[in-house]
Amino acid sequence: MPPLAATYLRPVRPDDIPALYLHQLDPEANRMAGTKPRSLEAFQAVWDRIFKDAAVTARVIVENESIIGGVSCFDMDGLDAVGYWIAREHWGRGVATRALRLFLQEVPRRPLHATAARANLASIRVLHNCGFRLTGYRTGQETDRYVACEVAEFVLQG
């Protein structure tokens, strides 16, 4: 395994959107996450709303001056939630765990909630490694963004 590169977070800027858009097109990443890729127009519309919403904390994950993913805190059905996305070529190196730990130091809100497709063992491991506790499972319904699948629900207490 190559040595760990310096990984850091910074606020998302409008000029980051093309890189983030390409990441969310990855079919294998979507399969694991139980998500569907968005069109460029839909993706841009989501980010236009995010940039206007002071309650959302959104960061890109940067390594060797390249954007390799994103992590954010947002409202999910009235709960503070966290989500993350790592470019596939960076999977398996601990990037998601390092990035989420950095993010949790920056964002003091607790409790924080997270979900992962039950079959996404890598994401579930990241959440466990960052102190999230499994609270249960539910059947997620298909939407324009998500495929129907079993969803694991997690919480990180203060």
Describe this structure in words.
The protein is α+β, with helices and mostly antiparallel strands and 158 residues long. It is built from five helices and seven strands. The strands form two sheets. The chain has a four-stranded antiparallel β-sheet, with helices on both faces. The chain has a three-stranded antiparallel β-sheet with strand order 5-7-6, covered by helices on one side. The protein is globular. The mean pLDDT is 94.
For the largest beta-sheet, the strand count, sense and barrel status come to: 4 strands, antiparallel
Low-confidence stretches: none
Q: What is the CATH-assigned architecture?
A: 3-Layer(aba) Sandwich
Rg to the nearest angstrom?
15 Å
Report the order of strands and helices. EHHHEEEHEHEE
SSE blueprint:
Blueprint: E1 7-11, H1 17-23, H2 27-33, H3 40-52, E2 57-63, E3 66-76, E4 79-86, H4 95-106, E5 112-117, H5 121-129, E6 133-140, E7 149-156
Antiparallel strand pairs: 1-2, 2-3, 3-4, 5-7, 6-7
